[in-house]
Amino acid sequence: MKIYITGLASGYEVEHLVRLFYPMAPLTLTPPEAGEDCVWAERKPDGLLALVREHGGQETVSAPLPGPDGETEAFALASLTYDLLRRWTGIRPPWGKMTGVRPVRLIHDKRAAGWSEAEIDRFFLSRFDCSEQKYQMARAIADLQEPILRLGSEPKTYSLYIGIPFCPSRCSYCSFVSCNLDRDRKLVQPYVDCLCREVEEIRAQAEQAGLKLCSIYIGGGTPTSLSADQLRQLMGTVRQCFDLSCVVEYTVEAGRPDCTDAEKLAVIKEYGATRISINPQTFSDEVLAGIGRRHSAQDILDCFADARKAGHDDINMDLIAGLPGDTVEGFERSLRQAIALDPENITVHTLTLKRASRIVIEDQRENDYADVAAMLERCHLLAEAGYRPYYLYRQKNTLQNLENVGWCKPGHEGYYNIYIMEEVQTILSAGAGGSTKLVADGGKRMQRIFNFKYPTEYIQRFAEVLERKKEWLIFMITIGSRNVWWRSTFITLPPAARKRWRR
Question: Strand order in 38-44's β-sheet?
Answer without folding.
Answer: 2-6, 38-44, 47-54, 57-63
